[in-house]
Amino acid sequence: MGNANLNISVIEKRMLSQTEAASYTGLPVKHFKASCPVQPLEIRPGARAWDKRDLDRWIDEMKEGAEMTTQDAILGKL
């Protein structure tokens, strides 16, 4: 029996289509279009793409806002 080597290289995409960006954020496309403030880049005429780093930053900002709301709610109950 012979030996076989399989070399697989996976390159993670940074720029996402609208469908991919919505899926990445866990939102249906309809909700993503209505709520996401991240502006896409026009990679070439008619081709828009969302940067994963910008999406991550938006999600992190929402998390920070939620933490502050929770802290304010706790302090308000004291």
Automatic annotation (TrEMBL):
Domain of life: Bacteria
UniProt protein name: Helix-turn-helix domain-containing protein
Originating organism: Mesobacterium hydrothermale
